[in-house]
Amino acid sequence: MKTTAKRSLVLVGALSVAAMSLTGCTNDLDAGGDTDGKIESVALMVQDLSNPFFASMNNGVKAAAEELGATYTAQDGRQDLAAQNEQIDAFIQQGLDVLLLNAVDSEGIGPAVERAIDAGITVVAVDVGAKGAQATVTTDNVQAGELSCQALVDEIGGSGDILIVDGTPITSIQDRMEGCQNILDENPDVNVVATQNGDNGREKALTLTTDMLTAHPDVVGIFAVNDPTALGAVLAAQQAGKTDIVVTGVDGSPEAVAEMSKEDSQFVATAAQDPYLLGTTGLDMAVKLRKGEKLDDDLVLVPSSIVTRENLDEYDGWK
């Protein structure tokens, strides 16, 4: 499997974290505003709280915040950058201590992040990068893209036409696409005949994939950037009567597990993440920053693992 020099796999809770940095993070890792280290309020902002991935992340952060004795709130960004800007400005007015941010737009959220830090809020990006955040924890999404795309290539026997259902302009999606491209570069007999950008959700993926299948009826596989997108692609294939098409995704979600458990499912693999762990790790990093401690690293990458129908019984799933 191809890897890139700029990344490393980090086992959260292991003895050490490999040294690396993220463009957009502050160099002063112990920056947390003028504070005595006490955390009285914690907030989590996510792209879409109705997504089970973010519901699991919310569970983790809420439990960790309660252990700190801090008040806690979660905000749904509704895939709307303007909404997240308004939410951050509201937190500034409220005097929030810690913000764990799952940005709708990794670059576009930058000015709001700067305002928050200037107001003394400690900002840690979770799951996706956010320009200007003081630290970041995310799945190794390049690896996840590689795992999912390799599973697809293996399933179609290393050749054939495929579709790609891409997503929104956030670092996790971009990294998964990079990882998939790494695998495609090694498999020239696999031909991407169409790529469309969805909104990381099932309904949009259903529409996009239906249109692509109409234009390209002979495809044998579909790579989707997350599980909701993959589930939409599966439904599109079913409705089009394309029962021989196989689909892979990224997440390891309960819905993906349920679909893959079906004997005749076309959903054959997903690269699993741990959203609960991402949330708790992000808050732990924020606590250290708030106390003025230096982090071992301002970017933590949590490894992914591939889940298939063959090893489904061994997969623990999300909390």
**Within the CATH hierarchy, at the fold level, what is the topology of the largest domain?**
Rossmann fold
What class would the helix/strand composition place it in?
alpha/beta
Task: Tally the helices.
Answer: 9
Number of strands: 12
Mean pLDDT: 90
CATH architecture of the largest domain: 3-Layer(aba) Sandwich
Please outline the major beta sheet: 6 strands, parallel
Query: Percentage of helical residues?
Result: 25-40%
Strand order of the largest sheet: 2-1-3-4-5-11
| Unreliable residue stretches | 1-34
How many structural domains in the coordinates?
A: 2
Q: Strand-and-helix sequence, N→C? A: EHEHEHEEHEHEHEHEHEHEE
N→C terminal distance: 29 Å
CATH H-level homologous superfamily name of the largest domain:
Response regulator
Strand-residue proportion: 15-25%
> CATH class of the largest domain, anyone?
Alpha Beta
Rg estimate, integer Å: 20 Å
**What shape does the CA trace take?**
elongated
Keywords: Signal
Protein name: Monosaccharide ABC transporter substrate-binding protein (CUT2 family)
GO cellular component, one term: cell envelope
InterPro entries: Peripla_BP_I, SBP_2_dom
